[in-house]
Design brief:
Blueprint (H helix, E strand, L loop, with lengths): L1 H14 L2 H21 L5 H24 L3 H15 L8 H15 L7 H12 L5 H12 L1
């Protein structure tokens, strides 16, 4: 995964696509910082976690900039999200997510809100980058309440 990003970086340089180049450079920098923090080469799952974190940061920034009417910055951030999303696996549909949550609740034999953590953790471990964990958490909370 990290090698793919490096190749895309050189391709963006060759294509002289400054915006894409800057975005991939920011991503590469974040990945290198994570490597330094963890003191080992990143696995694909760790790379995906970093990319997902970067997308999440941009999504929260978009919300803030929308409040203040900064449409040009919102468009720029959305373009960055589109570039970063290329590296993320396809997210599961709502129907698939509901099915997984219901199966996991049965599997973990969760009956109360106290067991929510177990269910969310299991889904996170099994599906990681394919699901939005905030959404999972919200749905599990509704199901167990």
């Amino acid at each position: 995964m990290f090698n793919t990003i490096k190749c895309d970086l050189t391709n963006a340089m060759k294509e002289k696509d400054k915006f894409k180049l800057d975005c991939i450079r920011m991503l590469k920098s974040s990945l290198q910082m994570e490597e330094i923090n963890l003191k080992h080469e990143l696995t694909d799952d760790e790379v995906l976690a970093v990319i997902k974190r970067e997308v999440k940061k941009r999504n929260s920034s978009i919300e803030e900039y929308k409040k203040y009417g900064k449409d040009d910055v919102v468009a720029s951030l959305q373009k960055e999200i589109d570039i970063l999303s290329v590296y993320l696996p396809e997210e599961l549909s709502d129907d698939e997510l509901m099915k997984i949550i219901e199966e996991t609740i049965k599997q973990e034999e969760a009956t109360s809100i106290k067991e929510m953590g177990k269910v969310v953790k299991t889904i996170g471990n099994n599906y990681g980058a394919q699901v939005d964990m905030a959404k999972v958490s919200r749905i599990v909370k509704e199901k167990l309440s």
